Predict the structure.
Amino acid sequence: MAATLRDVAERAQVSMRTVSNVVSGYAHVSERMRRRVLDAIDELDYRPNPVARTLRTGRTGMLALVVPEIDVPYFSELARDVINAAAEVGYRVMIDQTGHDHDRERELLTGGDRTMLFDGILFSPLVTRTELLEMNARTSMPLVLLGEHEFDGRFDHVAIDNVQAAHDATTHLIRLGRTRIAAIGAQPDEQYSTPQQRTAGFEGALADAGLTPLRIEAAAHYRRADGYQAARSLLERDPRPDAIFCYSDLLAMGALRAVFDAGLRVPEDVAIIGVDDIEEGRYSRPSLSTVSLDTPFIARNAVARVVARIEDPDTDAVELVAPHALIARESTVGR
Amino acid sequence: MAATLRDVAERAQVSMRTVSNVVSGYAHVSERMRRRVLDAIDELDYRPNPVARTLRTGRTGMLALVVPEIDVPYFSELARDVINAAAEVGYRVMIDQTGHDHDRERELLTGGDRTMLFDGILFSPLVTRTELLEMNARTSMPLVLLGEHEFDGRFDHVAIDNVQAAHDATTHLIRLGRTRIAAIGAQPDEQYSTPQQRTAGFEGALADAGLTPLRIEAAAHYRRADGYQAARSLLERDPRPDAIFCYSDLLAMGALRAVFDAGLRVPEDVAIIGVDDIEEGRYSRPSLSTVSLDTPFIARNAVARVVARIEDPDTDAVELVAPHALIARESTVGR
DNA sequence: TTGTATGCGTTATCAT
DNA sequence: ATGATAACGCATACAA
C-alpha cells in the first residue's frame, strides 16, 4: 500500500505536523528535522494524497474547460493554449465536451454531476446569457466565459468582438469588388449569440457599402460537412455568389471543397473568407483568408481571471476583448 | 455554504446512514423515509461532495488521457471518441498534453505530481517500452497503452499494426506503377517505436516488389510544417520522387502544399498517401489517400480495458489490434 | 430497515 | 519549532 503522512511521521520519529510542514515547504523547520523527514519520505516512497488534501483545503488544482466539440480545430487549438497557460500557474485542465447538448451544459454548470472536482470553469458556451444567469445563481463556482460578446457585468469574460470581426471580413470582400456576397453560418433556430453577432457584422458592412446580402445560409453546426452542404445550395441558386463569408474556418474548408466540386475556381469565381485562423487554413489549397483570433491571449487571460476569482471570489467581474486581425490569403486575393 | 449529508439528516430527522442510502440508490429503504430524505435534499439543494466520496471509496470517476499534442487532429479526434466512450460507462476524462516532453510523461506515470486524482490512464506514449517498465513498477495505476505495437504481455494495450499499415500504403503506391518512392516521418534520434515500425513496413513492401526506397526523410514532429519542409527537401533532390508515403496525414497535408508550391501536380507528378484518416483529408484538394485507423474502436476498447482493470487489478493484460483499411482518394488515384 | 461510530489522509487550530 | 488532535464530508462495519 501507499505510504501515508502518518507512516512517514512514525518512521522519522516526528509528528504529522512536522511532516506536513516539510512537505508543503513551511519555513520554520529546523534543518535536522527536515533531513530526517525527507529521508523517511524517500525510503517509503511517500507521495501526498491529493484527494485528502483537497477535502481539507477545498482546492483541487483543476480547471474545467467546456467546449462543444474538442475535435473542432478552433477548440482543440484553444484547449492546447489553455492547458499550457494553466500549467504555468499550477493548474491542470479537465476537458468536457457538451456535444451541442444544452442539458449537458446545464448539468456541468449547476454541478449536477461531479462538479466541485474542479476549482473553476472556463466555458465556451452555447447557452444564452439569460440561461447562464439562472444557472449560476445556484452555484458560486468561479466561471469565465469565452468568446461571447454580450456582457452584463456579472461574469468574467474574455470576449471576441464578433460584430467587428464579421464586419472586417465582409469589408475585405467588398473592397475586392465583389457584389453578390453570401454568408454561411446563421443558426435561426438557436439562440447562440455568436452567429447573431456575425450576421449583424455581415449585414452592417454590406449596408455601409450600399449593398444587400445575396443570401445568408444556415449551418446546423460549424463542421466541414455543414459548410460543404451550405455552399452547395448557395452555388445551385441563381444568381450565384461571387464571394462567401463563412462564420468559421471549418465551414470555409467545406465551402472551398464544394466550390471546387462544382467546377469553379477560388478566388476567381468565388472568393471565400472565414474566421478563426486555424492552422489547416494556412496549408489548404488555396490557403484560406480569415480573421485571426488571438487564442493564446484568450487562454492566458481566461486562466488568469479564473485564478484571480478562485483566490478572491468577491473580485469584480472583468471583460476583456481579444484582439483580432484580418489575414488575406489565396482564397480571396489569389497567389 | 453548501449543505452536507449531516445537514440533510438533521433536516429529515433521520440518520446519515439513511441519507447516504437514499443518495446512492440503496435498495432497502422504506418509501416513507425516502420521501422525507428526498424532500430535505431538495429543500437544502444538497449535492454530494465527490471529493469526500473519493477519499472514502478510493475512486475518482476520472480517467486521464495522455497525448503529445491535443491540437493534432488525430489526437483530438481520438480524444473526442475517448470522452464519449468514457461518458457511457460513467467516467470523465482529463486530458494531459506532454508536448513531446519525456520528463512530463515520466512524471505523469510515476505520479510525481497530482496523479491519484484519476482511476486510470490511457496513454498514447512517446516513451519506449523499457522506460515504461521501470516507471510502472513504482505505481500500480491501471494503464492502457494506445497505438504501439510491441507487446510483452505486461500492459493492456490497444494496438495498431503499424508495420502492416505502412506496408499496405506503400503497396498501394507500387501498384499504381510508381517506382521512385520516398517516405516522410522517420525519427532517427528518437526511440519511439511507431516511426520505426512504419519504416519497417515501408521498406518491406518495397523489398517485396524488388524496389528500394528512394529516400526516407526525417520529421521532428508530425505537424504540417514538418511535412512541408521534408517534402521540399525531397523535391529539390534528383531524382525526384514520383510518390511519397507520409507516416501521418498531417505530414501529408504539409507535403501536399509543398508539392503544389513547387509547381507540381498531385497525383500526376507525385502521388501522396498518409496514415490516420483525419477528417481534414476528406476535404482537402486533392483529397488524401490514407490508411484509416478505427479510432472509435481504439477508444471503446481502451476505456473498456482500463475500467476492467480498475474493477479487478489482477486481471490479465490483454492486447487488441485495431482494424485498419486503405482508403484511396484523389491524392493517389486522381478524380 | 435504520442508527452509531470509525476512518479515509490531509491541513489547521491550539497548545507547549 | 514542534506535538496532539480536531475537522473536511462521506461510506460502511457493526449493532440494534
